[in-house]
Specification:
Layout (H helix, E strand, L loop, with lengths): L11 E2 L2 E2 L14 E2 L2 E2 L3 H9 L3 H15 E2 L2 E2 L3 H14 L6 H13 L2 H8 L10 H14 L4 H5 L4 H15 L1
Antiparallel strand pairs: 1-2, 3-4, 5-6
Helix pairs in contact: 1-2, 1-3, 3-4, 3-6, 4-6, 4-8
């Protein structure tokens, strides 16, 4: 009797593995994104890394909706996802690198919850304080800003341009 192979999320393009250092160390099922459990984020990150432009783009759209929807840092999973976005942005074979860098900029610019809390300070007393999520996510982006020079020097003008915008956002 033959068995049908089950499809596993691939981290390979051809024979070359796409590294996502530490992805398995994050307790994804214990943290939340906009859909509830963030357990689906690793699969989306693997799909972004896949190299297939339509699949990677669709996965990045889904990922954006789960971690930074409409410019809002929507849940605690955002900060945990940021280091993997930086890693993917640096990998030359990833097909949607400029869009990943733009997502990092959106996260770095996010101040919507702080703005709401300025008007409604009771938000800061909420057990799941979104201002804390937002600040952690921004710190996570800033923590890797040392990688900007490599991306700024990229031959792809779209990547260099998106990186310059991210650098400007981080300089503020």
């Amino acid at each position: 009797m033959r068995t049908v192979p089950t499809e596993q999320p691939s981290t390979q393009r051809g024979d070359r593995a796409i590294p996502l250092s530490g992805l398995g160390q994050v307790p994804w099922s214990d943290i939340r994104d906009s859909t509830g459990s963030a357990a689906g984020i690793p699969l989306l990150l693997h799909q972004v890394a896949s190299g297939d432009a339509p699949t990677a783009g669709a996965a990045l759209d889904q990922l954006r909706g789960r971690i930074c929807q409409y410019g809002f840092v929507v849940e605690q999973a955002t900060a945990a996802t940021v280091p993997f976005l930086w890693e993917l942005a640096r990998l030359p074979g990833v097909t949607c690198r400029p869009r990943i860098i733009q997502l990092l900029r959106s996260i770095a610019d996010a101040r919507q919850w702080e703005s709401v809390a300025a008007v409604y300070p009771k938000l800061l007393n909420h057990p799941e304080n979104p201002v804390v999520w937002e600040r952690r996510a921004r710190r996570a982006v800033r923590a890797r800003r040392g990688e900007l020079p490599v991306l700024l020097a990229d031959r792809d003008r779209e990547i260099a341009g998106a990186t310059a915008e991210l650098a400007d956002a981080l300089a503020e």
